Amino acid sequence: MELDTLKDAFDRVVKRQKLSSFRSQEIVDQVGHEIEQALAKIKAINDPLSPVHLKSILSELKLKLNTVGPLNLLEGLQKERNINLSKYPKLFEKSFSPDISKAYRDVDFDFHLVNLIVANHFYQQGLFDLGDCLIDEAGEPEAIAIRSHFLEMYQVLEALKVKNLGPALNWITLNREKLNQNGSMLELKLHRLQFVEIVKKGTKADALSYARTHLAPFASLHMNEFQKLVVCIIWVGKLDSCPHAELMAPTHWDEFTQEIIKQFCSLVGQSYWSPLSVAIAAGIKGLPTLLKLANVMAAKRQEWQEMKQLPVPVELGKELQFHSIFVCPVSRDQGSEENPPMLMPCQHVLCNQSIMKLSKNTSRTFKCPYCPTEASAAQCRQLHF
Fold first, then answer.
1. Domain spanning 323-384: which superfamily?
2. How far is 259 from 190, CA to CA, in rounded Å?
3. Where are the zinc fingers (RING-Gid-type) (predicted)?
4. pLDDT at 46 over 70
5. 205: which residues sit within 8 A by CB, 6+ positions away?
6. How far apart are CA 144 and CA 132, in angstroms?
7. What residues contact residue 150 under an 8 Å CB cut-off, 6+ apart?
8. Closest Cα partner for 175 from 262, 267, 272?
9. Where are the domains of the chain?
10. Kindly report the CA angle at 145 between 142 and 147, in degrees rounded to 5?
11. Stated pTM of the model
């Protein structure tokens, strides 16, 4: 990817800069050392006015400095550094098109849907004033429905910042059944955090009482976790020596916060990543391919705006794949219930319409576009998403 290439080039520039700086400092130190030695010799002369002694010391200093060649060395280091620095801007300009609008296509947007997506993003980020302003100016009152859910979530998150688990416990208790159906361990994690805080600041009696009341109900299903926590009681006052010191790590609060956000979003039918952030991430990943395609089509005098579908796939990575999509390698049509993917005997897959065209509506066999195998439409079986 272009960004990886840029990063490698930048790392080389930084490495060369550090090496150049180190070598330059070495040269300066060496020159300084020679001068200091010469000064020390001058001060040690019994007759400081003797021109013979002074001349021999200065001649020796000049010879040593000529041997070191500080100017040549510094100029060489500067030249190497400038070469690397001059390459980086060129690579940067090559990797980033100054006019990304070339990849723009005039498509019809559902502005109602766009407004909902942007408002949803603001609410999910806790920017409630911006979300309210948008739906008020855009006239999208139905978007306010999701606001209350995220407002409740941020009330819980604000409490967690000061290690107040009360609001989180209330929400978990209210939604315990749904959380259990999702296989969530939020309640256990919450009590673990509270128990650890008691172990850190309280007494053995307080920790034992909390464990009996709040941790014991989880012992049958999470015995290993329960045992580790109970053992910590023995080490109250000397937690540095506790064999399960990892339970005291502050990162558990961050992990719990992220888990709360994920479960909140899941229960209200929202993605952990807002649709707007996913769309932007996909656009950033696909932009280099689209720019290259737009430039190629412009060179061939083909109209980018009139293109109905992309002639090449745009790879977005597994992190941006949320459901199975099949695109026929022959027709470039996306698979659907009306045009399902069909598995050929050679294990290659084409869409049904392509199979029909190649077999002339099932009347004869045809050759697979990817291997020498011949098959008929009757030999192909439908695949399900």
1. Zinc/RING finger domain, C3HC4 (zinc finger) (3.30.40.10)
2. 11
3. 328-371
4. no
5. none
6. 8
7. 123, 124, 126, 128, 264
8. 267
9. 3-95, 141-268, 276-306, 323-384
10. 120
11. 0.58
Extract the tokens encoding 4.
């990886």
Measured CA to CA in angstroms, residue 325 lies from 68, 71, 328, 351 at distances of 67, 64, 10, 12
The two three-digit tokens of residue 32, written as one number: 């300084």
Distance separating alpha carbons of residues 266 and 182, to the nearest angstrom? 9
C-alpha count within 13 angstroms, C-beta hemisphere, residue 93: 5
pLDDT recorded at residue 49: 55
Contact 253, 160 (CB under 8 A): yes
Give the helix/strand (H/E) hosting 357: helix 352-358
Letter for the amino acid at 53?
H
User: Residue 381: exposed, middle, or buried by beta-carbon count in 10 A (0-12, 13-18, 19+)?
Assistant: exposed
- CA end-to-end span of the chain: 31
Contact 148, 141 (CB under 8 A): no
**Would you give the DSSP letter of residue 221?**
T
CA dihedral 275, 276, 282, 288 (to 10 degrees): 170
Number of neighbouring beta carbons within 10 Å of residue 124: 25
Residue 379 has which token pair? 């030999």
Residue-wise pLDDT for 250-275, tens only, equals 889 999 999 999 999 988 888 888 88
Q: Indicate the residue type of 54.
A: L
Residue range 318-372, pLDDT digits in tens: 778 776 678 888 888 888 888 889 888 888 888 988 888 888 766 678 888 888 8
CA 27 from chain center: how many Å? 42
- Cα–chain-centroid distance for residue 157? 22
User: Could you tell me which of 111, 120, 119, 109 has the C-alpha nearest to residue 271?
Assistant: 120
Q: What residues are paired with 327 via a beta bridge?
A: 334
d(CA 135, CA 120): 10
Contact 119, 143 (CB under 8 A): yes
